[in-house]
Amino acid sequence: MIDKIKIIEAYNFRHACKVFDTNKKISDADFSFILETARLSPSSFGFEPWKFLVVQNKDLRDKLKLITWGAQGTLPTASHFVVILARKQKAMKYDSQYIKHMMEDVHRLTDDVIQKRRGFVKTFQESDFNLIESERAMFDWASKQTYIALANMMTSAAMINIDSCPIEGYKAKEMEKLMTDDFGIDHTEYGVTCMVAFGYRIDKQRNKTRQDTDEIIQWFN
Amino acid sequence: MIDKIKIIEAYNFRHACKVFDTNKKISDADFSFILETARLSPSSFGFEPWKFLVVQNKDLRDKLKLITWGAQGTLPTASHFVVILARKQKAMKYDSQYIKHMMEDVHRLTDDVIQKRRGFVKTFQESDFNLIESERAMFDWASKQTYIALANMMTSAAMINIDSCPIEGYKAKEMEKLMTDDFGIDHTEYGVTCMVAFGYRIDKQRNKTRQDTDEIIQWFN
C-alpha cells in the first residue's frame, strides 16, 4: 500500500522533459528498476510483443538524432535512451511460432488450454477486428501494448524522481533502415513504436495543462 | 520519492483479475484517485484523445456482457467498470476543431506557437506516418495514447491494493451500435479502444509469467 498523495505527486512530477542535466547519471540499480516495471507490464493475451533497445552508444545516438525530430534535446543529454520495438504480423498472428512459444514455454499452458486460447486469438484477430488483413493494423495492435510498458516506465521513473520524455516524432522509413543497418534488427520481425528518454531535469517544469475531469469522464449510474 | 521495493510489489500484485468479490466496493475517494491518474497521463502532443465511461448501471453492464466475451466474469462482479474511448480522425487531424481547442483553450499557447506546432502535427500525420489516408491508422494512433492512461489506472490501483482487469475482447460492430444506441456516443467522434474493470480479488493470484530480461532488453553501449 502506497500513499495516494505521494503517487499523485509523482504523476504531477512527470512531464515531457526536453533536456536533461548531462552531469547526472541514473544509477544502474535505478535503471534496472525502471526496465523491470516494463518487463512486468501486462499485454494482450500476455504475449509481451515488445523489445527495448537501450541506446547509450554516442554514434548510434547521433544517427538517431538525424531522423528523430522529437528527440533533438534529449538524445544528446539523456542519461539513458530507450527505443521501443513491437513485433509484427509474422510473430503476432494466432498461429505463429512466437505465439506458440509464448503459450508453451513462457505461460506453460497445457495443450488443451493452448488450443482453446488460440481459438480466442483467432476470433479476435479475424472476426472481431480483422487484424489479419492488414500488416499495419496488426502492428498497431502490438504497438498499443508497448504503450502500457512505456507508461509504466515513465511512472515508475517519476516515483523515484527521475525525469523522462516520450518520443513519437521520427522519420518512419529512415528509422526502419537505421534499425536494420546499424542495430541489426530484422524489420520483418520488429518495428519501432516509440522512444523514451530518461535523466534528470535541468530546466523548471512548466505548469501541467489537462482537460477537466467532467470533460473526459462520464458516469452511467 | 517512493520506495522501489514497494513499487515492484505493486507491479507484481497487479494481475488480470477475472472475478471480483461482490461484497467489496471501492470507495469514492479511491476511485477518484484512479481516474485522476488517467487524467494526468501524457499523450502525443498533449492532445488527450480519450474519454472514460464509468459503467455502474446494471442494465448497461448486462448489454455490454452480451458482446464482450473478455469480461464475462468481471462485468457482473466489478466494483467499477470503465469503457475507454479514443477520438477518431475527425477530431485528431492536425487542422481539426478539437486540436485547435486543445492548443488554444487547454494548452493556452500563443498563435505563433500553435501555427508551428500544427506544422509538426501535419508532418507527423502526413509525411512520417501517413495517418491521414486511413481512418483506422489515425484511430489506432489515438488508441495508443489511451493505453498509457489504461496502464496508469491499473498501476495506481495496484499501489493501493485494488485489483483490475484490462479487456480487449468484444465484438467491434455490435459495440459501435451499443455505444450509439445506449450510451449516446457519437461514433463519428469516438470509438471504443479497450475496457478495464476494478474491484477486489476473490481468488488467489496465479504465478506471474514473463520473458527473461535478456530476451526483451538489448543494450547498445
Please give a structural write-up:
Two copies of one chain form a homodimer. With about 220 residues, the first copy, chain A, is an alpha+beta fold. Chain A has a domain at about 20-90 and about 145-200: NADH Oxidase (3-Layer(aba) Sandwich). In chain A, about 50% of the residues lie in helices and about 15% in strands. Chain A contains nine helices and five strands; from the N terminus they run ααβαβααααβαβαβ. In chain A, α2 packs across α7 (about 135-160) and α3 runs antiparallel to α8. The first copy, chain A, starts with a helix and ends with a strand. The model of chain A has no long low-confidence stretch (mean pLDDT about 95). At the A-B interface, α1, α2, β1, α6 and α7 of A face α1, α2, β1, α6 and α7 of B. β5 of chain A pairs parallel with β1 of chain B.
What can be said about this structure in brief?
Chain A is α+β, with helices and mostly antiparallel strands and 221 residues long.
DSSP strand (E) fraction of chain A?
Answer: 5-15%
Tertiary shape of chain A: globular
Question: What is the second-level CATH architecture of the domain at 20-91 and 143-202 in chain A?
Answer: 3-Layer(aba) Sandwich
Residues in helix, % of chain A? 40-55%
Number of strands of chain A: 5
Q: How are the strands of the biggest sheet of chain A laid out side by side?
A: 1-2-4-3
Which H/E pattern describes the elements of chain A?
A: HHEHEHHHHEHEHE
Which ranges of chain A are low-confidence, i.e. pLDDT below 50, for 5 or more consecutive residues?
A: none
Q: Could you name the CATH homologous superfamily of the domain at 20-91 and 143-202 in chain A? A: NADH Oxidase
Average pLDDT metric of chain A: 97
**Rg from alpha-carbon coordinates of chain A:** 19 Å
Which class do the helix and strand fractions of chain A yield? alpha+beta
Major sheet of chain A: 4 strands, antiparallel
Oligomer: homodimer
User: Largest chain interface and its two residue counts?
Assistant: A-B, 82 and 83 residues
Total helix count of chain A? 9
What's the CATH class of the domain at 20-91 and 143-202 in chain A, please? Alpha Beta
CATH topology group of the domain at 20-91 and 143-202 in chain A: NADH Oxidase
Distance between the termini of chain A: 29 Å
